[in-house]
Design goal:
Helix 6 packs parallel to helix 8 and helix 10 packs antiparallel against helix 12. By secondary structure, this protein is of the alpha/beta class. The chain binds nicotinamide-adenine-dinucleotide and fe (ii) ion.
Length: about 375
């Protein structure tokens, strides 16, 4: 018999979770026999004091290491190249990424180039990376993109005004050390937008056409955790209960969406980064309630369940309303125009968005004019 549908669950990354787990960084490096390590981070994360304890553990473990702290937010093809060249110069055999999605994606792709040669442009798309990347131990400091777990990397191509997506089980971090303590210093606005990114991953995965019971259990748990803990984590960064719940949400949401894909919010967020330089978390947060409102008639039961998980009524419209409120509570402005987006960018962004594979799994069928209308509604 030919199966009509096959649900595959696959996570190549080994995930360790717990307060203080970042300090075990030497263990996975020893497991893969690493000797020469490039620590990939950015200046904000380094200034927050998050790299120094990692360096201590590397020294204690007898590793030769260097710190590359030149990662920029929303890194581009050129920045990955620079990081890769630094790794090659020091003859690195492994990477430790300490930071948000920007540092982690930079390290994942530099490690991919170290093992495969070429440039990022050779690997754009699905399953284009022939050999496994050099080992990456990812220590996220935001909660978060899930870049430490997912098989996706997002790299900007400023020439084409695009954010390129590389999707391959060979271009992932081998280990993720999920340590809520590492997010303690994350500033309120970064906490808000990266937390909303997690919530969007969970909601889009839960309602999308590829969802199935196992991914839905995970996504729903992530919606509950993020929906209930985000406000507290933004209000008081030292609230470790809230920080821990947010990081749990990242793990559950990432396990889910890695196996389902996402939806219109992510299809539309990448062009906002490419054309208008809106940070990923900001883009997804502003778009989410508009896309939910567009989708809810196609999946009313699923959106009603989302509403309940967010702590409001079991009702699709109430879910939309709750997300508008949540954005307001955590300090995200409701309009894209407040983040520098102008109407003249809508045609180009819409043409890019409609080509995303995420449109195909969105619960409501979506055409070019729908995407344009959604950008206008959020403008
Ligand atoms: N690979 C994926 O699956 C995936 C998914 C979504 C987004 N992304 C990409 O991830 C990038 C965004 O990552 P991000 O949102 O995590 O932000 P980021 O890595 O760009 O970091 C944002 C800022 O926060 C600061 N920061 C981070 N953690 C901190 C901490 N604990 N204390 C103090 N400062 C801290 C950094 O210094 C930086 O200035 C984008 O390039 C986006 O496209 C990737
Ligand atoms: Fe995202």
């Amino acid at each position: 018999m030919t199966p009509t549908r096959v649900d595959v669950f696959r996570i190549p990354t080994r995930i360790s979770f717990g307060r203080g787990v970042a300090l075990t960084v030497a263990t996975p490096l020893q497991q893969v026999g690493a000797k020469r390590v490039l620590v990939v981070t950015d200046k904000g994360v380094r200034d927050a004091g998050l790299v120094q304890p990692i360096e201590e553990r590397l020294r204690e473990g007898g590793f030769t290491y260097e710190v590359y702290d030149e990662v920029v937010p929303d890194p581009g093809v050129g920045e990955v190249q620079r990081c890769y060249e630094r790794a090659r110069e020091m003859r690195a055999d492994a990477f430790v990424a300490v930071g948000g999605g920007s540092a982690i994606d930079t390290a994942k792709m530099a490690a991919t180039l170290l093992a495969n040669g070429g440039t990022v442009l050779d690997y754009v798309g699905i399953d284009k990376v022939p050999k496994p990347a050099a080992p990456v131990v990812a220590v996220p400091t935001t909660a978060g993109t899930g870049a430490e777990i997912t098989i996706n990397s997002v790299i900007a191509d400023p020439e084409q005004h695009k954010k390129l997506v590389i999707i391959s089980p060979n271009a992932t971090a081998l280990f993720a050390l999920e340590d809520p303590e590492m997010t303690r210093t994350c500033p309120p606005f970064i906490t808000a937008i990266t937390g909303m990114d997690t919530l969007v991953h969970a909601i889009e995965s839960f309602v999308c056409k590829n969802a199935y019971p196992m991914t839905q259990v995970l996504a729903l748990e992530a919606i509950r955790d993020a929906g209930q803990a985000l406000g507290a984590a933004v209000k008081d960064g030292a609230d470790m209960e809230a920080r821990e719940r947010m990081m749990r949400a990242v793990v559950s949401a990432s396990l889910a969406f890695s196996n389902t894909r996402l939806g219109n919010v992510h299809a539309m967020a990448l062009p906002l980064g490419g054309w208008c330089h809106v940070a990923h978390g900001t883009a997804v947060a502003v778009l989410l309630p508009h896309v939910m409102d567009f989708n809810r008639t196609a999946a009313p039961e699923a959106y009603a369940t989302v509403g309940e998980a967010l702590g409001t009524k079991k009702d699709a419209q109430a879910a939309v309303k709750r997300v508008f409120q949540l954005n307001n509570e955590v300090g995200i402005k409701p309009k894209l125009s407040e983040y520098g987006v102008t109407e003249d960018a809508i045609p180009s962004m819409s043409k890019d968005a409609i080509q995303s594979g995420n449109i195909l799994v969105n619960p409501r069928e979506t055409k070019l004019e729908d995407i344009e209308a959604l950008y206008r509604a959020a403008l």
